[in-house]
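[audit] Reproducing an earlier prediction to check determinism. Same input, same settings, fresh worker. If the tokens differ from the archived copy the diff job will pick it up downstream; this log only records the rerun itself.
[audit] input (282 residues):
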Amino acid sequence: MKRFALLIALLIALLAPLASAAAQSVTVAPPVVVIDHRARGGSLDLYNPSSVPVEVSVSLLYGFPVSDSLGNVDLNTMEHPPAGEPSAAGWIDAYPRRATVLPGQKQTVRFLARPPADLPDREYWSRIVVSSKAAAIALASPDTTKITASLNVEIRTITTLLYRKGTVTATVAASHLRTAVHGDSLITRVQLDPHGNAAWLGTLTGKFVGADGKTVAEFERPMGVYHQVDPSFILPLDSVPPGKYRLHVELKSERRDLPRSTLVQSPAVRDSIEVAVPPRRP
């Protein structure tokens, strides 16, 4: 029985982080902080929706989205970016860098930029890393005299900071659109190349259109294109009958989660490709 009690205590210790993770994080707004060279300052708000105090720390590092050979997109971060990368992480300070946010309360974090005097006109990037954790969670086995455990789960939220000096432009080019049907899904890949002196922020949508002009399936994904990426998108086809279709993709400098003033406007980009959905295998 003691061994069984020990096993139960260990299982509780392993599962507790999953149950308590949401209660130890803070919400971060806005999702993108834009700093103008004339003002050289910006801010974001951290809100604690939980019933316990949450300790937070704020740091900055450089990073941008990258894609692998399968089209999966991940964030490539680095503390020491190579020369020539438009990093703002080294000359932007956050105040405060550490704070305790009480339950139901808000903490404003302010950013102050100290750029080099000879900074060229363009957009510069940084990632804001907000690490949050509550007080340690004490766990005990049914026999409290023998086993105790302490858990302290840290959750990291990464958002974006953009520093803009002078006139900034951002466009995106789409090429090498291709598709492949795998089971009940259509896998779409498209290469995206940014142009200009700023990152392209917007939304990529895909519409699967039949011969009658009706859309039978669609997808939408917010995108940030800083360097060339070749992402993949999955479109379910389980309710799409066999036949010939056309996939239309469109990129617009619009985002549901960002105000228009945050985005560098550019013309929409469109492309399409014919797709044949084969009969289902019995």
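[audit] rerun output stored. Observation attached for the diff report: The radius of gyration is 24 Å.
[audit] end
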